[in-house]
Structure formats: C-alpha cells, structure tokens
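Standup notes, structure subgroup. Blocker cleared on the 4-(N,N-dimethylamino)cinnamoyl-COA input:
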Amino acid sequence: MYDNIITRVEGRVGVAQLNRPKALNALNRELMTELMTALEAFDADPAVGCMVVTGSARAFAAGADIKEMADATPARMMTGSFIDLWDRLQRIGKPVIAAVSGFALGGGCELAMACDMIVASETAQFGQPEINLGVIPGAGGTQRMTLAVGKALAMEMVLNGRYLSADEAQRYGLVNRVYPVEVYLEEAVRLANEIAARAPVALRLAKEAINATFEMPLRAGLDHERRLFYLLFSTDDQKEGMDAFINKRPAQWKGQ
Ligand code: DAK
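Run returned:
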C-alpha cells in the first residue's frame, strides 16, 4: 500500500515504520506524505487507540532528504507544501509514541520531538546537525529542543552539532524510557497498548491540554484545562469511570 513506510496494527496500536533503509530513512516528500496519510487513517480508526512511529535499529531518520533539498529556493520551500505535511502531525488527536533507535538527526529528531513521547534504544543518538549544512533546524528543532533540554544544551546541539546519547537524552528529559535495542520497539508498543486501553476521549483531551502548555501563557492554559475538564463530564466514560471506582469494578470505556 505504501512505498516508503510499513504499517501494521498490534493490539490497539497502529505502528508506522519508516522504510527507506538505503537513505537511512531520510524524510523526503513522498515518505512524509505516506506517514501523515497513515497516521490520519489510524486517527480515524476506532480499533486504534494509540500509535507508534518507528524506523530501523540503525536509523530512526537521518533528517530531511538533503538531496531533495539541496537545490531548493525559499519560494519553492514556502509554496511547496512540505511544511504543511509536518503540520498535519500536530492535528493527530490520539497519542503518538516515537520508538527511536540509531540516528535521529535533524528532521528525524524533530519528528521524534513532535510525537508525544519518545521510547529509545540504548543506541539512539539525537542531534540537530543542520549547522554543518549551513542552515538551522526548520521543523521545530530550536524550539522543542530548547523546551525539552534547556537553553544551555540546546545551544551546544544547534550551534555546535553536539549529539545526545540515549542516556543523556533521558537524563535531560527528552526521552521517556531507554531499553536495549532488541526490545525497544516491543516495549514502545507495550506502553502504547497500555495507553490505548484508557478512556479514549479523556486521552485526546489530556494530550491537547499538555500540548497547550507550549502554545499559551499559564493563565490561558489553566483556563483551557478547566474547560476540557468540564467537557469530560458530558461523556459516558466519565460516568462509567466514577461508577466503576465507587462499585469497585473495572471500567468499560466506550469512547463516548
Ligand atoms: N538525506 C539524504 N540522504 C541521506 C541523509 C539525508 N539526511 N542521511 C544519510 N543519507 C544517505 C547517504 O547519502 C548515503 O547514501 P549513498 O551515498 O549510499 O547513496 C546513505 O544514506 C548512508 O549514509 P552514510 O554513508 O553517510 O552513512 P554513515 O553511517 O557513514 O553516516 C550519518 C551516517 C547519519 C552520520 C550521515 O549519513 C549523516 O551525517 N547524514 C546527514 C545528517 C544530517 O545532516 N541531517 C540533517 C539534515 S537537514 C522543514 C522540515 C525538516 C527540515 C527542515 C525544514 N520544514 C518543514 C520547513 C529538516 C532538515 C534536516 O533534517
């Protein structure tokens, strides 16, 4: 069905695996189009509760495709809808986990950071080496990396091309969990299935509320959170969850 990615459903988890091994999963337009189409299809599928985006053991993704970008002009980049593809990820309502092994560089690192959580293998390397190409990150690297690891380290990474190992990335708050390369993907899917078993509408709104932190001042974020909280009292799942607690039984979520 796709040429540059492989998709499958494991339990209630939609897995999208980047598959351009010869280019270390460099993110060209075709791959990004397929990835966004696949994630949107998972988002619309009630059998899927959470998603995992992954690559290979050697490379999550070594960045945007430098060969595709080399001759670009500003006008072509602005009008070429490449940026729109990246923006589509922000409109996915269900949680998305990046399962990262090997190189996560440039756009690869930005793609992982645009997901909601990162599970890494011990061999993962995170970096924003665009400075070596005479450019800077263009898909969130200067913003999300700084928010994740702080100004001091972000400056080193973006100005001087410093990579973070998986352990460093976890220590500095970029990565949720680190596992041996043999099991990182399985563990990411296990975590995703745990999340997928939770109340679906609450999951969506929880993700939306946390992500609002990066868009709004605190007062507006608190007000937004409260409105989402009130909204959940219109769902069957809220009634079910609280009744299940009171009657000491497991809740049965309907996603309504
Ligand atoms: N693009 C195209 N091809 C790539 C690539 C890339 N980013 N990375 C690797 N490849 C290709 C290599 O050219 C090589 O192909 P052949 O020569 O065999 O045909 C093959 O993958 C294997 O790579 P190497 O031979 O280089 O393998 P090594 O193990 O020696 O080195 C490496 C691995 C990952 C250290 C090295 O390949 C490397 O440094 N790659 C480039 C990393 C990089 O600079 N990434 C940042 C790219 S700039 C935006 C959206 C996104 C972006 C910007 C804006 N908007 C929406 C506005 C993102 C920009 C970037 O990511």
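Discussed briefly. The two ends are 31 Å apart (CA to CA).
Next: hand off to the docking folks.
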